[in-house]
Each structure stands twice: as structure tokens, then as C-alpha cells.
């Protein structure tokens, strides 16, 4: 009887030990799973906190896109991220100009979109337009006043930009009695200027348009004279005064705009009555074609003086 009681006590003790052991192992496994989940959450949070935006080049489409890249990778994605070493025209594709002119590099060489946002197309277009409007060409048509029409008076003024787009074209009401309209050359007739704009209004408009800009023209001093305005000499490019051009076209003498245009551009102008828009465009085209050598010549002259 005592032996049976003792045997039952031993079995009960073993059962309690096994229950305790199973409970302990279950808790350990639960703690382990919670630890792993917590560790993953911390890693995910750290990755989100440390990630940076970078510019990635899609080689198949030739376009740029924005992606997130973690600092934990320990290295840059090769051949994709624009860095100082691989920022070349082939890699940048159609976005080369915008990237080259408007992006700055971080110390690690990766472009950060947050600190260096890419300019919009409208901003780039505005800058381009401003650059083109930095150069203007002007031409005036004149009529004769005074004795036998020997004195000049402004009848029309035209201004174009670097691309030949018209910025101003005005007929001017005469301040004195016209004694010679010079129609065969000027193309001006009485009805053109009788209802023209006031001279002083046109003068103010011209001043604003050419202020601080490089002014191109042929015999530009005469045009400025009839407008009664002045323009800084360093900002004037006169096709009638550019010596290398004069030597090339007229053996050192002052050539006509018609002669220069035919020799340099292969175009015929002023076959009949003159047109101030056409003449201004011709002068600008000549400058555009010779601008590189012209500016070098101008700088050398400036350094010698």
C-alpha cells in the first residue's frame, strides 16, 4: 500500500515537471519570435529614416526617374546613379543640358533632389529667351527735311532679336515738314507716317529695348543719330565698321549692307525699296555667322587699348 502511494507521488511529480518544462519552452519560443519581429521593425524604421532620393537613369528609355536608396547598402548602384565620375552626355541623354547647368553635387557625388530640384521646362525656356534677347539688331528708314530734303528725319524704326523675331516696328509721325520722302530707297509714303506714333514715345520704347544689350546694325551711328539717343560703344556691333569684314568684302572700304549680305549669306536684299525689318534681320544674320571671330577680335582690340 505504501509502495503504491509512493509510486503515485513520483508520477505526479514527473507530470508537474513535464508541464513546467513545456510551459517554459513555449514562453521561450514566443519571446524569440517577438524579438525577431521587433528587430525587423527596427531595421525597417532605420531604413526608412536613412533612405535618400537619387536620380536614376533608365538606360532602355533614355529618361530619368526618382527612386529611394538606403544608406545601408554600403555602395552606390553602379552605372545608374549620376555621380561626378559618370556624369557624361551619353549617360544623361536628353537631360544633359539641364543636368549639367543646374545640378550641384553633394560631397559623396550623388545628386540630391531635395536640395537641388531640377528646373522646370518653363524656367529653362525663360533663360534661353533672355539670352536670345540680349542681342538686338536695329535699322531705321529716314525721310528728307529742310532745304531739298538734305537733312534726315526718322520715319520708321525696326528692332529684331537674335532669331530675327520682331520686337518693335514703328512708323513715326514727322516733327517737321517733309520735303523728300525718298520713297525709291526708304519705301516711305505720306500715308505711312501721317498717322504714325509720336517721336518721343518711340524714342522711349527704343531706349528700353536696347538698354544694356548688344546692338547690331549697319551704319548704326546714323540710326542712333536720328533717334537722338546714345549707346555704349562696347555694346555696338556695326557691320559697316568691322574691319576684317570690310577688308574681305570691300578691300578695306565701307561696304553696303547689300554687298555684305550677298558675300557672307548669299542672299539678295534691297533689290528695290528698302525694308527696315529685312535690313535688321540681315545685319543680325551676318553677326550670328561671324560672332565667334568678331568677339575675339573685339576682345583683342579692348586689351590693346
Features of the shown structure:
6-stranded mixed sheet, 305 residues, 11 helices, single chain, two-stranded antiparallel sheet, 8 strands, Nucleotidyltransferase, domain 5
Question: Would you mind describing this structure in some detail?
Answer:
InterPro entries: REX4_DEDDh_dom, REXO1/3/4-like, Ribonucl_H, RNaseH-like_sf, RNaseH_sf. This protein is of the alpha/beta class and 305 residues long. It has a domain at 136-303: Ribonuclease H-like superfamily/Ribonuclease H (Nucleotidyltransferase, domain 5), CATH 3.30.420.10. Helices cover 48% and strands 17% of the residues. The chain is built from eleven helices and eight strands. Strands 3, 4, 5, 6, 7 and 8 form a six-stranded mixed beta sheet that branches. A two-stranded antiparallel ribbon has the order 1-2. A hairpin with a 5-residue loop joins strand 3 (135-145) and strand 4 (151-161). The longest helix is centred in the first third of the chain and has 49 residues, at 2-50.
